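User: Batch of two.

Assistant: Item 1 of 2:
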Amino acid sequence: MNGLLRTVRASGGRTRLSDGPARDRWLLNARYLRSLSADNLLRPYRAEAGLWSYSGSWGTTVGGVSPDGPETWHWGWESPTCDLRGHILGHWLSAAARVGEYDGEVAARAATIVGELATCQRANGGQWAGSIPPAYFERLAAGREVWAPQYVVHKMLMGLLDQYRFAGNEEALEVASAFAGWFHTWTDGLSRQQLDDILDRETGGMLEVWADLLAFTGDQLAADLIQRYDRRRFFEPLLAGADVLTNKHANTQIVEVLGAARAWEVTGEQRWRDIVEAFWDSAVDARGTYCTGGSSCGEVWQPAGEQSARLHAVQEHCLVYNLMRLAAVLFRWTGDHRYGDYWERNLANGIWAQQHPDTGMPAYFLPLATASRKQWGRPTEDFWCCHGTLLQAQASVDEAAVFVDDTGISICQYLDSAVSWTDLFGGRVELAIAADTDQGVALGQRQTFHGAAGIQELSSRPLPGRRPNDRVYLVDVRCERPSAFEVRLRVPRWAAGSPVLEVDGKSGPVEVRDGWIVLSEVWSSQRIQLTVPSALTTAPLPDQPDLVAVLDGPIVLAGLTEQETLLYGDPAQPTSFLTPDQERHHSWWRTGTYRTVGQTSGVRFMPLAEIRDEPYTVYFPVRRSQRPTTQKDD
């Protein structure tokens, strides 16, 4: 790989998810996005600007009941009296900037909202455009109680800048730039000591916003704000190797480090990159993760190597999303396959596991203890922070899949998708990426026309006799004219053996170097087939290794039991206590379905990502001692 990698969008290309599990989740999210009205999203902004009020009736004395009554409003964290009111609009704008590329209704609604925010800003005097009063910031500076006002404003600024970045909305950039002027004036009057005290309260991603604004405008005002939002009390000990994470609010710190990452990209100052790398080492590499790939319990970092006492409120959804964003950044910088592996595991066992497969609603936490249940949010009654990151995470899932540099294309995630560039390596280039679900398995399969046809056709669609233990990826490469470049395929760390590679049906020796297969050819119209063998593995708790979770490839499995169940077998060989179960349904292979074998009681296992309301357990004690004399397999 040659230098920094670029996303498909940054290299002038376009990605569209194709029919498959990722698109199914994307569509669930888009449906929820469309269900949230502009009036409800804007309500706190209009109220703050004096452009909306509510008395309960049309008249001053006796009148008809207003149709815009409280029963139609957003509640929970969007309640009119909640300090965080208005945060969801920013998440919505960010997601809508992406979804709007394919949905004209969403794009039009987003443009209307940006225009209304500009109206609110003018009504407030030309700078302030928030959903909360400026007085909240005076409380913050005075050390008085107030719930995260910078977090709220950050969401709105982020949404505006994404509307500019993805949708090209110039008015959004104008509103954000004028609002930044208010912050420049406010921080002008604060000493460094006062700023440091303020930065010790949750600031959201304000540092990232100022770095983006500097990149978009070159304005010295944004450069000043980057320096003022440098949280030295956190960054300096982090750089010195101190543990400044354990039992601290995880998502506060992650988004500050995302700001440092963007500051390095914009300014080139090495210290910012050093901060990012030191953080990843402390938060992920040295600390370790749960079997899901996630971190934190009860919103704070778990101690390094210690998880067994913290299985009850694991991996806040926002943390999962933001660490995946950081992994994608580090992958762009380095091309290191480890970041792709991390992202893949968190997609399956975080972003998808914490989205209800039917309703699309988020789970704030993902408990992993015995007899856990997912607690799902409601569409308009809760509006946790995780409702917002749900909107963004599902809308942007394709952005970490394919990357480009001057020598070729890196396929990091095998999401069913169509990717195209009008001018890359001398002409139009197209990729079609898909999972072969006849010969391999994939999480989230369902009834499809293709699958249904496959159980009717005979010689043209032979199927394996049993559920395959492979994941099979197809990549079709089409070039307007023959072009020489590299196609790089990530080989996942969960691979249970050597991958098999075919190009146009011809196989040959495969060299995997640093987690990649590199194909350097003249491309015109070729099909690549990559078969990656998969197997059951276990992930023990680092501080209690007799408790293990089971994975099928990258997919964490959950046992459908409310009791702590002792299993007998080899903890390193899950096939000693699990056997395939319910492996096929009609026209598709079911992924990750097993049942215990040779145990005192039977437990069925299924992917954690497909758990809805069932009680479940993820970590099980496994004992090598002799099996019980009374065995029950079912």
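Item 2 of 2:
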Amino acid sequence: MTASLDRKWRPSLGLIIFVVLTAVTILPLVGLFFFRIYDNQLIRQTQAELIAQSRVLAAIFAEEVTARLDDGIVLGNEVPVEARPDPSDRLTPIPPALDLAANDLFMRRPDARPAKVQPDPAYVEIGARLMPIIVETQKVTLAGFRVLDPHGVVIAGRDEVGQSLAHIDEVAAALHGQYRAALRIRVPDKAPPPIYSISRGVGVHVFSAMPVVVNDRVAGVIYTSRTPRNIFDHLYQERAKFVLAAIAVALGTIVIGLIFSRTITRPMYELIDRAVRIGHGDRDAFRPLRHYGTREFALLSRNFLDMAEQLARRSDYIASFSAHLTHELKSPLTSIKGAAELLLDSLKSGSEGLTRGEQESLLSNISGDAGRLETIAQRLRELARAETIDQRERAELAPVIENLRDRFPALRLETLGGLDRAVGMSAEKTLIVLSHLADNALRHNARTVRLAVARAEAVVRVEVSNDGDPISEQNRVRIFDAFFTTRRDSGGTGLGLAIARSVMTSHGGSIALLPAAGGVAFELRFPAG
């Protein structure tokens, strides 16, 4: 069994705790690799801001165009029916839908091209009116704004005025009445730090093309762009909080480690050390642990140490009992062997052998010693049976005492108290205990045995006293020892009181010798039935 345990690898408790604490420590660092989720949120936030800003400019643009319809201003492409909003809808929001993980990044935005046709002076005038609004807005939002006419020519913006952007995909879609946004690779002014490679959102640009619709026709496009907020800039701005969080994680890990060590690891290793010491016969190892840690471990260790101590006591008892039993069996066996050898020599010697009286004496000795061996064997069977426990055992005292009267007619039994009390022990074992006390009294010249029954909490107390010979002071401490007897010549085995104590102890009861002015008195404490 030990070899099979050694072959199979099992992690130690310390290794498991180390792995758990390491995982707790590096968990925040692992979160760095999930920046893309936060990147995506920042990109959508940027797109939502561009949608809001361009929609305001588109409304102003549409008002300017509407005011010039009577002057013959020319509109662009008709908006397809499927792209037109439902007139019954009061709200037509445009949700941000860019996804850094799902959308392919376009190459950097193509350069503007020369316009094929010059813009209408009316649109140039509108662009000039919108330019102050664009400049003021750009100061706060940091976004890039370009206002396009129905042909995709820039009529307002800081750069590319008079040039065409109609060839760009998102602008081309907007010129046909559909809002479109795109993520494009951004070429930075200077090389970013290496750590920026963790985040894909650092090197992209968000472009938004909002169509300006008047009378279901495209009057122009608000083309906006902006770089999403840099996640590392955000982390840097919040660096104090992140440092505090890192310190909190480190301190938390240390605290968790100390708690694990004090409540689990240290008590566990101490209990293992106790088990090893107990295995080597160190009786000092039965002392309670210095520290238990948890309620469950305290219960486990106490039960373990109690069990180990009980097994050690049992082992000592078996060793002592075996030594006494060997001594008790040796005397009658030696006597029987010697008598048998004398009888055998007498038979071989013929007329010079033993007389008939001597032979009868030897045979009488053999019979007496055999009877003593039989009595010892019977007592040993009772002792073995005494330690078997049935949790459902229950007996009333009245019928047990009546059986005791029948078994010892030479004794006068007096009872006091309620004999209807039930004890948590079978009638047979209760009778065994009382019989040994009665037999012990009879062998010590008692004529009367008195039983006084009283009920205490969870126990039934029975005081058994007799008027026989008192027990001397030097023998009082030995009367419950196996094979100790002062009546060996009258057939005493010294097992009676040992059996009585074994029965009581194994059933959760007790037996004790009480001080008495005359005679002998015992106190039996039975578990209540």
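The longest helix spans residues 295-349.
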